[in-house]
Amino acid sequence: MYFTTTDCDKCGKCWEACPTDCIKHPDGIPFSCTTCGVCASNCPTDAIKKNKFGGYYVDRSRCTLCGLCVKHCPFDFAKFVEDSVRGRHIKGICVRCGICVKVCPKNARIDALSLIKGPVDYHVLMEIAVPEKIKELVEGKPVAVKAEAEK
Ligand code: SF4
Ligand code: SF4
Ligand code: SF4
């Protein structure tokens, strides 16, 4: 999962460069597919596969366009798109290519998986996914989350 820090100046280079169109930008702040895998686990034909980088891709030979990934994505990223080359297909799922990190002139895109060690709880990640908390994480400060406080 890639996060955005407060260094972001909302230039738009990351979402323009993202090959999978998986970056939303409410209020100009980029927010990308979490790679939580819910779409993959709900696919009845096992068409959504994890790649070696921890991202996901759609095997179009297995995809029946049933739309269950779109229906079950908790963050509304997986979507149907259509073009003249590929016809109707699924897009919006992050492959973890890292292009958004490379093109950011402010170094404001951060790979959360490089900062958080051990098994990733995506509910915790979602709590952290605000630019101010990400900034603290990058600076090595402990970041309090509700999920931890309740333990
Ligand atoms: S490329 Fe960097 S500065 Fe520009 S919108 Fe994306 S995260 Fe923000
Ligand atoms: S598209 Fe949605 S369900 Fe699939 S990995 Fe991304 S955030 Fe999770
Ligand atoms: S890692 Fe790649 S696919 Fe994922 S948000 Fe960044 S540019 Fe898009």
Strand order in the sheet with the most strands:
1-8
Order of helices and strands: EHEEHEEHEEHEHHHH
Shape assignment: globular
Helix % is: 25-40%
Q: How many beta-strand runs?
A: 8
Distance N to C terminus? 24 Å
Tell me which CATH architecture applies here: 2-Layer Sandwich
The residue-averaged pLDDT reads 91
Tell me the major beta sheet.
Answer: 2 strands, antiparallel
Structural class: alpha+beta
Number of domains: 1
Unreliable residue stretches: none
Walk me through the structure.
By secondary structure, the chain is α+β, with helices and mostly antiparallel strands. It has one domain: Alpha-Beta Plaits, CATH 3.30.70.20. Helix content is 28%, strand content 17%. The chain is built from eight helices and eight strands; from the N terminus they run E-H-E-E-H-E-E-H-E-E-H-E-H-H-H-H. It has a two-stranded antiparallel sheet. Strands 2-3 form a two-stranded antiparallel ribbon. A two-stranded antiparallel ribbon has the order 4-5. The model has no long low-confidence stretch (mean pLDDT 91). The structure holds iron/sulfur cluster (SF4) (3 copies). One iron/sulfur cluster (SF4) binds next to helix 2. The site of one iron/sulfur cluster (SF4) has 15 residues, from helix 2.
